[in-house]
Amino acid sequence: MAKFDVVVIGAGAAGMMCAATAAQRGRRVVLIDHASKLAEKIRISGGGRCNFTNINAAPANYLSENPHFCKSALSRYTAADFIALVKKHRIGYHEKHRGQLFCDDSAEQIIDMLKDECSRGDVHWRMPCKVAALQQAPAGLGGFVLQTDQGEIEADSVVIATGGLSIPKIGATDFGYRIAEQFGLRMVAPRPALVPLTFDAQSWAPFVEMAGIALEVDVETGSVKGRNPTGARFREDLLFTHRGLSGPAILQISSYWTPGTPIVINLLPELDLAAALIEAKGTVRKQLGNVLAQWLPARLAEGLLHAHGFAGDARLADMPDAQLRKLGAAINQWTLTPSGSEGYKKAEVTRGGIDTRELSQQSMMATKVPGLYFIGETVDVTGWLGGYNFQWAWASAVAAGISV
Ligand code: FDA
């Protein structure tokens, strides 16, 4: 039987970071992954350039049933710490949008950097390798025994870094959730997040023609007012698709959206449309469709008028103010209820996971099962779009890596 101090299961973002951190402290570490290709999710992230962190990352950018949980790890390993590592490896990077940092060249550089950090600590690899069972060692011995297709492994600590359920075709599994269930740890029900939203075919029919149109909007869901908001609001780009809505605005709001509830989109966030139309009525002798096309893409203006029962060729001057107010509200507060989402095959992340009330916020160890740790996306901490999820992967990995 092979013996190690630490077994890390899952060689993705969090797993490699944790293995490197623990190994560089002198722990004997083995890193296991069932995939034959290393860190596919890092490779495809950020359009192939890996948005590896966000300089503004703060607890408010994360969703969790226990919103304070992420504070400790995020404050002890910050975006600046990861940037220092990237600089040490001479990887060029740039800021793209609102604090989002991307590699200049390729996401492969982040994978190589993490591999190199693992080598510096002499991490042992088992890959591809399947874990058939994980048990606590017999009473009195402490630690864990793993059955794998490369033999039995014994270790004092086991770190579960197998990620969430998104993109099953590149190796996502529910392994972490099954281990949590085996050890009696509570879960927050997982669901797809940072995901395009869909509508039933009938209600979406008027908008199918608009696929490909993109514009900046405000989008909100739930209650965003008061001291304990239950929803959120974002100003980002929205993209029409054949089946519904996508783009950063929709990916962001999807993480907060509860099935069966509406989202509200302001398609002209810088304009009070009703007021502008009423003002224009006195001076502009144009058709409604042409007036609206000053502010919105013409195809979208036409489709929206049709969908809301307005004739595009109606003369603005002939329209009653009450009708213009109705049109203004339909566009400044377009309220629609998605029928669902594109699911795990398109979701960037999984919301929910291991209930953080089962874990120590300092070390990520399960308080009921000494020596068993959960990090990264397995845990009920989900970041916004824009480098926040990798920052959580690094920070939670380091918290466990200095503790195992
Ligand atoms: P991750 O998924 O990285 O790693 C899990 C590892 O466990 C994988 O290597 C997998 O093979 C392995 N595994 C799974 N089941 C196993 C089993 N049963 N046995 C053994 N091994 C197993 N975030 C961000 O901050 N910036 C970005 O630019 C992007 N871009 C992006 C694009 C796309 C298309 C997606 C799908 C996601 C992103 N993300 C992102 C999200 C980010 O990729 C994600 O949050 C992190 O990779 C999570 O890191 P983990 O290490 O927790 O899981």
TrEMBL record:
Residues 191-349 form the RsdA/BaiN/AoA(So)-like insert domain. InterPro entries: BaiN-like, BaiN-like_dom_sf, FAD/NAD-bd_sf, RsdA/BaiN/AoA(So)-like_dom, RsdA/BaiN/AoA(So)_Rossmann. The keyword Flavoprotein applies. Keywords: FAD, Flavoprotein. The keyword Flavoprotein applies. Residues 5-401 form the RsdA/BaiN/AoA(So)-like Rossmann fold-like domain. Its cofactor is FAD. It comes from the Bacteria. Gene3D superfamilies: FAD/NAD(P)-binding domain, HI0933 insert domain-like, Translation factors. NCBIfam families: aminoacetone oxidase family FAD-binding enzyme. This is Aminoacetone oxidase family FAD-binding enzyme. It comes from Duganella qianjiadongensis.
